[in-house]
Specification:
Layout (H helix, E strand, L loop, with lengths): L7 H9 L18 E5 L2 E4 L4 E4 L2 H4 L8 H14 L11 H13 L4 E7 L2 H18 L7 E5 L8 H6 L17 E4 L13 H19 L4 E6 L15 H11 L3 E5 L13 H6 L5 E4 L11 E6 H8 L17 H16 L2 H17 L7 E7 L2 E6 L15 H11 L2 E2 L1 E3 L2 E4 L7 H18 L1
Parallel strand pairs: 3-13, 5-6, 5-7, 7-8, 8-9
Antiparallel strand pairs: 1-2, 2-3, 4-10, 9-10, 11-12, 12-15, 14-15
Helix pairs in contact: 3-11, 4-11, 7-8, 12-14, 13-14
The protein binds pyridoxal-5'-phosphate (PLP).
């Protein structure tokens, strides 16, 4: 392992940087990778050791890092105009052009864009937009939100309240509870015993119907869902689920909010997974991450003309009282435009479809290992679930932190995969080749094999 625990940067890190989502123990004496350089999917640490980053940063380095063209675009925009006030009567060229481009790429009549700083703020905006819209149309009681256990939607107060990953919620905070309801996680691998995928889908749809009946459709404002759950375990819902729930939302006048912070911009082979993969036309779509491939922070809440027409007509004094200093940041928007141009020019979506099929197929071979209970996901969004017993699907004790054991071993062999308790998660740059796939699967397989 190439973790040197004495460098000046390492000491500064341990002493001063409180990292997000990181146990206090790891601020004491554990080594962390002190990264200094990146090119494509390859990262280098302070000692010059290189790694293949199969996590793609945090599901975000879609076009790969270290691209000259991105550096030039960003530098040029900084020279031209590094910042522009987004409020009232001011605009800027990259933000306006990006909004137009996003409207072209987004499904249905999703033609309106509200910029923020990342995925959490995009979700926060969506949450406020739901309230605002329901108020503006004279339905102030429609404020309840449906979401799912296992869903992750971000770290702001509203986003974390909508999040349904119980392990991410801690007793030290009081989340919004009364108006947010978490339905079952649509994980086919963990379906109730004896149910096949179709029965499980029916079960989830029935549960949704029951919740609507219990609360009353006149009280429910929106359903928030990732088309494929990400950090909740890379869960592709059962066939037909997304579309059937969307139909129920339409029937019951409930807004469908697709959290595509991970799934958009090519991760599963499409600009947006909702429509292309699942046949759903959401009312609101949140995105971030792959929007700039992590070159700069940017979030966007895209929403339909139908919503816009309601909120923008009527009371002349009304406005959407929300926004950020960095909404529509010209440099971030210029980076996003260039990022989209690169995805288009290099046909990265088709590449993900093609290489993704190979990635799925190669990863499935890990099922032969005794520790591997499930291999799941779609294209460039995959994970391996490790279990104590493959028949009963019983997990190893959480304290063992098996995912971390495995990822530590993989890291020693030059591969970075993300540990999430029992899982090892992968979301590589869209440029990953078949040769890279072989490297990832071989190294991950060896790490799993040698762990137990
Ligand atoms: N939504 C989803 C599906 C995510 O996976 C994440 C982050 O991983 C977020 C929202 C929050 O995004 P951010 O960390 O940029 O605030």
């Amino acid at each position: 392992m190439s973790k040197v625990m004495s460098s000046e940067s390492w000491q500064a890190d341990k002493r001063h940087w409180m990292h997000p989502w990181t146990h206090f123990d790891s601020f004491k004496d554990e080594g962390s990778l002190m990264l200094t350089r990146a090119k494509g999917a390859r990262l280098w640490d302070e000692q010059g050791t290189s790694y293949f980053d199969a996590v793609g940063g945090l599901w975000c380095t879609n076009i790969g890092l270290g691209r000259e063209e991105m550096a030039e675009t960003i530098a040029e925009q900084v020279r031209e105009m590094a910042y522009a006030n987004p409020f009232v009567d001011m605009s800027n060229v990259p933000a306006a052009q990006l909004a137009k481009k996003l409207a072209e790429l987004a499904p249905g009549d999703v033609n309106r864009v509200f910029y923020s700083c990342g995925g959490s703020t995009a979700i926060d905006t969506a949450f406020r937009l739901v309230h605002f819209y329901q108020n503006c149309r004279g339905k102030p009681a429609k404020k309840h939100i449906l979401a799912r256990k296992g869903g992750y939607h971000g770290s702001t107060y509203a986003a974390m309240s909508i999040t349904g990953k119980s392990g991410d919620k801690i007793p030290e905070f009081d989340y919004i509870q009364d108006t947010i309801h978490h339905l079952s996680c649509p994980n086919p691998y963990r379906a109730p015993a004896g149910m096949d995928e179709q029965q499980f889908c029916d079960f989830l749809v029935d549960e949704f119907k029951q919740k609507v009946a219990e609360l009353g459709a006149d009280k429910i404002g929106a359903f928030f869902a990732e088309p494929i759950l990400g950090s909740g375990g890379v869960i592709v819902p059962p066939e037909g689920y997304n579309c059937r729930i969307w139909e129920l939302c339409q029937e019951n006048d409930i807004l469908f909010v697709a959290d595509e912070v991970v799934t958009a911009f090519g991760r599963v082979g499409h600009w947006f997974a909702s429509e292309d993969l699942f046949g759903v036309q959401p009312d609101i779509i949140t995105c971030a991450k792959g929007l700039t491939s992590g070159y700069l922070p940017l979030g966007a809440t895209l929403f339909s003309d139908r919503i816009y027409d309601v909120i923008a007509t009527g009371d002349a004094d009304r406005y959407f009282a929300s926004g950020y200093t960095y909404s529509g940041h010209p440099v971030a928007c210029a980076a996003a435009l260039k990022n989209i141009e690169i995805i288009e020019r290099e046909n990265l979506l088709s590449r993900v479809v093609e290489v993704g099929a190979y990635f799925e197929q190669r990863l499935q071979t890990l099922r032969d290992l005794p520790l591997v209970g499930d291999v799941r996901g779609k294209r460039f969004m995959m994970c391996v679930e490790n279990v104590a017993d493959r028949n009963t699907k019983q997990l190893l004790p959480d304290e063992l932190n098996i995912g971390k054991w495995i990822s530590d071993r993989a890291e020693q062999n030059g591969l970075i995969v993300r540990p999430i308790v029992h899982l090892n998660v992968m979301s590589p740059p869209l440029t990953m080749s078949r040769k890279d796939v072989d490297f990832v699967v071989d190294k991950l397989g060896a790490a799993i094999e040698h762990t137990y």
